[in-house]
Design brief:
The complex is a heterodimer of chains A (249) and B (262). Chain A is of the alpha/beta class. The longest helix of chain A has 24 residues. In chain A, a hairpin with a 5-residue loop joins strand 7 and strand 8. Chain B is α/β, with parallel strands linked by helices and 262 residues long. Chain B folds into two domains: 87 residues, ATPase, nucleotide binding domain (Nucleotidyltransferase, domain 5); 148 residues, Nucleotidyltransferase, domain 5, CATH 3.30.420.40. Chain B is 38% helix and 21% strand. In chain B, strands 3-2-1-4-5 form a five-stranded mixed β-sheet. In chain B, strands 8-7-6-9-10 form a five-stranded mixed β-sheet. In chain B, a hairpin with a 3-residue loop joins strand 1 and strand 2. Chain B is globular. Classes of the chains: A alpha/beta (249), B alpha/beta (262). Chains A and B meet through helix 3 and helix 5 of A and helix 3 and helix 5 of B.
Chain lengths: 249, 262
């Protein structure tokens, strides 16, 4: 059984092929202005990687903010459900999932089967979302991918107290004028993001996480494909259910 | 007696000089990185008409986000108080002041006697502030001064759905690329700003505008924002001739001993 999950986010499009319960291939591309074209392009690549044709795929599930317009998807499922499903596949013991996207950030709580029990999200404000990291990376002129490693090289971090990313940018600029290094500013930016995201966790989903010491954050080897993975699993489960019902009939 | 009021804002520093309680001069300088220097520059210029020097000032009061940076012997005073005093000195009986600054918005409700009854402030989020307008002007390639008049030509509602500056920027760029008429986008931007300000107006409990609400600060010079705000407030607001120096005037009044219990 082959299922395909397509996740069209605000910044990147992801596709993942699942054969029974095994990941066959995946692909991540930048989202273009047209969600349908992005979905088609990322699907084409992922199919090529596994030498498959779209006709050979048994079921396609779409997710992400562009999920509703993808013509070759048979079903669309919210990215919240897909992230819970995908994360539980990787880490069956996971109960809290933090989805840190380009334009929003979600904290999701799920049960042992990857079913969502609660979630909170911030999609109004760029603080705590990927966009704030982009703005800071641009300010100090480093590539987004390098930010994390560079920030870890700093011996201290500058305090960035403003919540709003526009004001935080001015804070950072002021620190740089007063002699702070790029890495110190990056460390401050990362800390600011963490404190925003922690607020989200505290608020609804996992207040008790705060009290529980030694909670370990699991990060998937490719964290961007979780949504697409969840979508593909949803496809598989749907087919399996249909098969079962067919047999019963 | 020469008294001075300094309003060290996020973007501009304003100075007002009173001679025996009468407005004698005023000036503005960009705050840039150095609010202290901007204060000295603005004050020296404001003293020009009197032919006086900074050393001749007998009492000074500073307000604004950078009020504690000022090196001159000036007492600090709360922004809300200065805005209230400045407004009620120019418009006795004013019901309230809406101060729309570069990085913050303050709405003050006054009792009949010019005293602060309640207020609401936003200084955490750039939405609804001058920074938001500046960012949108840049994204659209329109000069800030042209935004207001141009938006009045709008014929179609194009709401900007993102609240955050960072997201609204992308939204506006997308609208520009899809050839949405500039005046319609501009009106959407002004509506977004006005609705944020109106949120504070409601929180401070300002009544429907009946011509006794004073709008000041840089954004009050944008006619598009004013019209949107007036529509939300169901009435008219008054903009003084020099809407940016009102808080500095209030500070100067405190310095000259006319500020009541401040």
């Amino acid at each position: 059984m082959i299922t395909l999950g397509v996740d069209i986010g605000s910044l990147t499009g992801k596709a993942l092929l699942l054969r029974d319960n095994e990941i066959q291939s995946w692909e991540i591309i930048l989202t273009g202005p047209d969600s349908v074209e992005t979905a088609e392009a990322v699907t084409r690549t992922v199919l090529e990687k596994s030498s498959l044709k779209l006709e050979e795929v048994d079921y396609v599930v779409a997710t992400g903010y562009g999920r509703k317009v993808i013509p070759f998807a048979k079903k669309n499922v919210s990215e919240i459900s897909c992230h819970a499903k995908g994360a539980s596949w990787f880490f069956p013991s996971a109960r809290t999932i933090l989805d840190m996207g380009g334009q929003d950030c979600k904290a999701i709580r799920c049960d042992g089967n990857g079913k969502v029990t609660d979630f909170v999200m911030n999609d109004k404000c760029a603080a705590g979302a990927g966009r704030s990291m982009e703005i800071m990376a641009r300010l100090v002129d480093v590539a987004l991918e390098e930010m994390g490693d560079l920030s870890l090289r700093a011996e201290r971090s500058v305090p960035i107290s403003s919540t709003c990313v526009v004001f935080a940018r001015s804070d950072a600029l002021g620190h740089m004028r007063r002699g702070a290094s790029k890495n110190e500013v990056l460390a401050g930016a990362c800390e600011a993001l963490v404190s925003r995201v922690r607020g989200l966790l505290n608020r609804g989903v996992a207040v008790r996480l705060e009290k529980e010491l030694g909670v370990k954050a699991h990060i998937c080897y490719e964290p961007q494909i979780i949504g697409a993975l969840g979508a593909a699993i949803f496809g598989r489960e749907l087919l399996e259910k249909r098969d079962k019902m067919g047999k019963n009939a | 007696m020469i008294a001075a009021g300094l309003d060290v804002g996020a973007l501009w520093t304003k100075a007002v000089v009173l001679s025996d309680g009468v407005l004698a001069g005023w000036s503005m300088a960009p705050s840039s990185d150095d609010g202290a220097r901007a204060a000295e520059t603005a004050l020296a210029e404001a003293l020009g008409p009197l032919g006086a020097a900074v050393g001749d000032v007998q009492a000074a009061v500073a307000t604004g986000v950078g009020k504690n940076e000022v090196r001159l012997p000036a007492r600090p005073a709360a922004e809300v108080l200065c805005a209230a005093l400045g407004a009620s000195s120019m418009f006795p009986g004013a019901a309230g002041v809406i101060d729309m600054g570069g990085e913050s918005t303050r709405v003050v409700r006054l009792d009949g006697g010019g005293q602060v009854a309640d207020y609401a402030v936003n200084d955490k989020c750039a939405a609804g502030t001058g920074v938001f307008l500046d960012a949108m002007a840049k994204a659209m390639g329109v000069a800030v001064e042209e935004m207001g008049p141009l938006s009045l030509k709008s014929t179609k509602q194009v709401p900007i759905t993102s609240m955050c500056v960072a997201f609204a920027e992308s939204e506006v760029v997308t609208l520009v690329h899809s050839r949405t008429p500039k005046e319609d986008i501009l009106m959407g931007i002004h509506q977004s700003i006005a609705s944020r300000i109106f949120g504070l107006v409601s929180r401070a409990g300002l009544p429907a505008a009946d011509g006794s609400t004073i709008a000041v600060g840089g954004l009050s010079r944008n006619v598009g924002i004013l019209r949107c705000l007036e529509a939300l407030m169901k009435g008219s607001v008054v903009v003084p001739e020099n809407p940016r120096i009102l808080s500095a005037l209030g500070a100067a009044l405190i310095a000259s001993g006319k500020g009541g219990g401040a």
